[in-house]
Design brief:
Blueprint (H helix, E strand, L loop, with lengths): L16 H7 L15 E4 L15 H16 L3 E6 L3 E8 L2 E8 L8 E10 L2 E11 L3 E7 L14 H20 L6 E5 L4 H13 L4 H10 L1 E4 L10 E3 H7 L7 H8 L6 E3 H8 L2 E4 L2 H6 L13 E2 L6 H4 L2 H9 L13 H4 L5 H19 L18 E5 L15 H8 L5 E5 L7 H15 L2 H6 E4 L4 H10 L2 E4 L11 H7 L3 E5 L13 E3 L4 H19 L2 H19 L1 H12 L5
Parallel strand pairs: 1-2, 1-8, 2-7, 8-9, 9-12, 12-13, 14-15, 14-17, 15-16, 17-18, 18-19
Antiparallel strand pairs: 3-4, 5-6, 6-7, 10-11
Helix pairs in contact: 2-21, 3-4, 4-5, 13-17, 17-18, 18-20
């Protein structure tokens, strides 16, 4: 056999013989997390403005929350991500949306330059700076270079996107080695991070481990976390692209042959090969894990472990509300619901809710003081002003325009209460369909005298605006097409900050019964729209009635607090990755 030399090497040459022997059996996957052998979390997107990296949406926010929760729980944790030297900010000029591009320097955010690593791309040696920011037991580890571009720059199957992904995988793995770190586990957040696991497989196979044993070891120490529902929606790369960007970084001929064999008609979908390299697989809500439609290369349906996303409550819950939760014994010191938390929530009276929301309104007004709406107006709201909001990515399946299908009916709901409707959400670069929908929505609003002054679009949606709205609004609107939302976390911030939730039964919301919030349902979109309007009227009425307000807010919290807790999420991951030995 011509390639036999690549498939056999004596086991005694392996550096970590004992760890490998334990890894052969799933139940003995090494549970030893330490500063030198951390939990490593790989993501192409991080949304952490405090640390200089602005993401595009929920995936990046989740990554930042997971790192902060690990810090609070004392878990040795390294988050590996690119540092993008440029970021996009959206502005409205003359009623239309435009992108402004801003350069960002990592030195301004406390990162330390470590060294430079090299990868090979298209016959060129690419030099990547390695930078890090160290916290007590966690760190953010980045690769970057001046021409790296912005987050998601280029089309999903483009050369530049592949360059970014290869840089994160091979460059990020070299960065770990520079720091003397050996990952106890590699968590791949979406398939764009596949090359981190491939780099580990290549290192094992090229340093003396039998190829098949290297595959077993890599698979048993790799978790693939999927955040989307349909495999066909993901990008493909060509064999030619791999020859130019991937294969030059592989030392092992066996690894190259292994991945070459995965191509079909000269194309490779990364989800297929990520499924092959990770034995551990998780979805981000109960519904998502059940319905995600993914298959391995052999055509077999892939099963995902349901680990619902959570949030860092210290970050997203306003301090006065968090103090109430802790003082009342609703949550413990790391944000897990306490034993008997349901009974403790009886202390949450309508008066207390309104007092806390008054503080939240002050937070919102402070955020809005520098954020004009589409008419150039700076908004400031009184405590008794009523606010609905839609704050999430402006994408088709989330249906941001749904309430505006009937502007006369929307006005009929808002006007008697003098209510406002705030829309905040970024349109992805290049999404011409949603950009047109946004322009059409703003045009329709401008034609109605009441809506023009009571419907507000806030450009350049970011985590500060997300926080302000979750603190200061009354009702959150979350109406994705059922079956298309993997989890979502914006609604979690609303529930914990005492907003009423109007939502379809999708994503993480569907982890609990639809009886626990103001559910929007229907056999078709017309029925859903009618139900949405009904729920908006119900929410206005509830806020003006002490009994209804207490009942609905408490019911939401009782049902959702165990789902929302980021500490619960990380605890679930740790139990899945490192099960107790028997």
């Amino acid at each position: 056999m011509e390639d036999a030399q690549y498939f056999y090497h004596p086991l005694e040459n392996i550096e970590d013989v004992e760890i490998f022997e334990e890894a052969v059996e799933r139940k003995k996957l090494t549970p030893a997390l330490s500063a030198e052998r951390p939990y490593t979390y790989w993501t192409l997107e991080l949304y952490d403005q405090e640390n200089g990296i602005r993401g595009g949406g929920g995936l990046g926010v989740l990554a930042a929350d997971t790192r902060r929760v690990a810090e609070q729980m004392g878990v040795p944790f390294t988050l590996v991500t690119p540092f993008y030297p440029s970021e996009t900010h959206q502005v409205i000029r003359d009623g239309k949306m435009y992108d402004d591009h801003v350069r960002v320097g990592y030195a301004n955010f406390g990162y330390r330059y470590v060294d430079t690593v090299n990868i090979k791309c298209a016959d060129t040696i690419c030099h990547l700076d390695v930078i890090e920011k160290v916290f007590e037991n966690t760190r953010i580890l980045c690769v970057t270079e001046p021409n790296f571009g912005e987050l998601y720059s280029g089309l999903s199957g483009s050369d530049h996107r592949l360059y970014q992904e290869v840089s994160l995988g091979f460059g990020g793995y070299q960065a770990l080695k520079l720091l003397g770190l050996k990952p106890a586990i590699i968590q791949l957040n979406e398939v764009a991070t596949f090359f981190a696991a491939l780099a580990r497989l290549d290192e094992l196979a090229s340093n003396g481990m039998d190829f098949y044993e290297a595959v077993v070891y890599t698979r048993k120490h790799t978790l693939y976390t999927n955040h989307t529902l349909v495999q066909a929606a993901e990008a493909e790369f060509s064999y030619d692209q791999f020859e130019r960007f991937v294969f030059p970084n592989l030392k092992s001929a066996a690894v190259r042959k292994w991945i070459s064999d995965k191509f079909t008609d000269g194309r490779l979908r990364l989800s297929s090969v990520t499924i092959e390299i990770a034995e551990l697989r998780s979805g981000v809500s109960k519904l998502h894990a059940r319905v995600a439609n993914y298959h391995d290369i052999a055509g077999n349906k892939v099963k995902f472990k349901a680990i619902t996303n959570g949030i860092d409550m210290e970050k997203w819950v306003m301090p006065d509300v968090m103090a109430f939760y802790r003082k009342s014994g609703v949550v413990d010191e790391i944000g897990l619901p306490s034993a008997g938390y349901e009974d403790q929530l009886e202390a949450l009276s309508a008066g207390k809710i309104r007092a806390l929301k008054s503080t939240g309104r002050q937070i919102l007004n402070q955020v809005l003081s520098t954020r004009p709406d589409q008419n150039g107006k700076i908004l400031q709201f009184k405590d008794d002003d009523f606010i609905f909001d839609f704050k999430r990515r402006f994408v088709n399946y989330k249906r941001p325009e749904l309430p505006f299908r009937n502007t006369a009916k929307l006005r009929e709901i808002l006007e008697p209460r003098g209510a406002h409707y705030i829309i905040a959400g970024r349109v992805h670069a290049g999404d011409s369909v949603m950009l047109k929908k946004l322009h059409d929505l703003l045009w329709a609003v401008s034609r109605d005298p009441y809506l023009k002054t009571h419907v507000h679009y806030l450009a350049d949606y970011d985590e500060r605006l997300a926080y302000g709205l979750s603190c200061g609004s009354n009702v959150a609107i979350n109406v994705p097409i059922v079956g298309l939302e993997a989890c979502g976390t914006s609604w979690m911030k609303d529930v914990t900050n005492l907003n009423l939730l109007i939502s379809t039964h999708d994503g993480g919301v569907a982890d609990v019964s639809a009886e626990n919030y103001l559910n929007v349902h229907g056999a078709n979109e017309s029925e859903e729209l009618s139900e949405l309007y009904h729920r908006m009227e119900e929410a206005i009425s509830a806020w003006d009635n002490d009994f209804d307000l207490e009942f609905l807010i408490r019911k939401q919290l009782v049902a959702f607090l165990p789902v929302i807790s980021g500490a619960r999420m990380l605890q679930d991951y740790l139990e899945y990755l490192f099960p107790p030995r028997t």
